[in-house]
Amino acid sequence: MKTLITFFFIVGLFGAMGLHSPSEERLRDTAAGKIAEAYAADFHRFREEVDKLIEAADNPLDLALLRQQLAETRMAYKRVEFLFDYSKPYYNYLHINGAPLPKVDKEDANGDIVPPNGLQALDELVFSEEAVERQDHIEKLAAGLKRRADFIAQVHLPLPLSDAQVIEALRSGIVRVFTLGLTGFDTPGSGNAIPEAIASILSMEQAFLLFEESVKPKARSKYQEVERLFRRAYYLLDANQDFDSFSRLAFLKQAANPLYENLLDFQQLNGIETGKMSYHAQNYQARNLFDEDFLDTYFYSELSYLPLDNPASIALGKALFYDPLLSGNGEMSCATCHDPALAFADGLAKSKTNIPGKFTRRNSPTLIDATFASRFFWDMREVTLERQVAHVVDDTLEFNTDFYAIADKLRQSPTYSRLFEEAYGGIGKEDIYRRSISNALAAYVNTLRSFNSEFDRYVRNEISAYPEAAARGFNLFMGKAACGTCHFAPAFNGAVPPFYTETESEVLGVTLGFDTLNPQFDPDPGRAENGVRKDARPHYLNSFKTVTVRNVALTAPYMHNGSFNTLEEVMEFYNRGGGAGMGLDIPHQTLPPDPLNLTEREKADIIAFMHTLTDTSGLMVSKVVLPEVEGYPGR
Ligand code: HEC
Ligand code: HEC
Fold it and tell me: Which pLDDT belongs to residue 13?
């Protein structure tokens, strides 16, 4: 699957648009044609606002004016964003509105670093105390933005669009507003999140209304329903524009989810083709941002000819996961460090190895929902669940063996031979080999998902009561405390919305142990020394994967080094602005070092929210009957 998708992705990057081009004729009388026309006009307006920004950044500096103009420019951008980011996500990330961090350009043969640029970098700087002092740099950023916007207008307009693509872009636009807009991800300096969300919603509404003339009779009432929902989204935002107190939970339940669902219904009823038209990890048929299948785990797996949802592979993988036969000394299984009773972690700061008294380098993370990622391990060194297995097998402190030795042992078992035959017969030269072993384990790990927590069921309207403290906590998590700007909904991990194609790592300055008075720097280099050539960058030093906070109530101790024993300690760490906030020298910290100023009640509320993310239903394993293996009696 990955190879196929990579192919489309590359076509997308290098092809004129990456989107199919409907003929000019067809364009004129479709809704999409009208939307494309309005979009082109909006795009030019955005460029004009960038021009004005350059003027405003010029000498002599009037800071109030500059801030006002940046807000205008960003608003103009918000009008084009849902279609622009949909059709040019990578360019957008790299140059227009990506996070204000250094980025490694995947397309650049030299792998040069692109320094922070674009609208987010501007938002951060122009609204900071350094704005006046760094006027030169602001001018440079504005000029860079202009070059990019002019260039992209040349190759990008007119935008060839189909109705199906418009609906897909609208649906991802709803996800974007909820996950990135309302969390403040987008507006690190100005905090202008709600007014910008209004601009986004209005632009999407206006685009949607251009379907008016092509609505079929049986889709008419759905059309009106979507129209009503856009209005509701607007009113909710307009009624309370205060960043801290705006209710994200109400917006999610009353506007975002219903829009996401009803846009799909409209699409179907109006006879518009449905399905994935672009490169992303959403399951197109999902109806709710917190549906169990909102994210498509296939997207992240290695091989389409060895599917992860084959029941035979899953059953086999489950047996292998709990079988100590796989390890060199026959005493260790995956479950030794990933215990189902502890949400597939092990309750230790670092895991015990096969050498008494020696521990693994890092903490054993939960495997529940681990599948929703494009990278694995705290240092991001592996790219699929299948490939992750080899690290355990080879590690002298873990299985300390190799796939040949494992296969030889498994072949001694008629039961295993049969299970492998059923799952993988005829695929390779042998049924039992590296790929089939890895795939079976990955297939089992891929079943460890949890989207039936109290929180999920509440936002899917399956239950009607939800603790008030948790509701306040959710709002803090997604707002004032900024957790949701890294632990993105719905998996609450580092998979970046709205397309969820990449998993992020961050530098938090996690300390050794928990001591707020004398914090100790943790020298673990993390991502910068994970062995991946393109990751060997100074800004990835001490950078670690953003893991999920689902099930954290069960997985203490926390962080890559297991340093924090309780969620209270985790909260205190964030409240102080991470390592840098506690006074350590962490040059590339991506967590803002400013204190969050959370009250005791607010900290408790966030913890209460995280407690409603517990769900191990269907994943508990009481007793696994291991297949018989000759030469290993009485297992
Ligand atoms: C000795 C303890 C131990 C054993 C045995 C073990 N693991 Fe792990 N596992 C860990 C630790 C520790 C990490 C984190 C290591 C790191 O990131 O550097 C980890 C990480 C992982 C991850 C990455 C999770 C993520 O979110 O990135 C997966 C998946 C995983 N293990 C699956 C397995 C499977 C499958 C097996 C059996 C083949 C297994 N583990 C055996 C300790 C263990
Ligand atoms: C700048 C990005 C960022 C922000 C903001 C952020 N986190 Fe994290 N979070 C991470 C990363 C990265 C890790 C893993 C760090 C490590 O181990 O070094 C993590 C780890 C965690 C863990 C431990 C998970 C585990 O299994 O060990 C919890 C709990 C957590 N975060 C909760 C929160 C809460 C609550 C907030 C808001 C107050 C928050 N995070 C804000 C990026 C972030």
Answer: 39
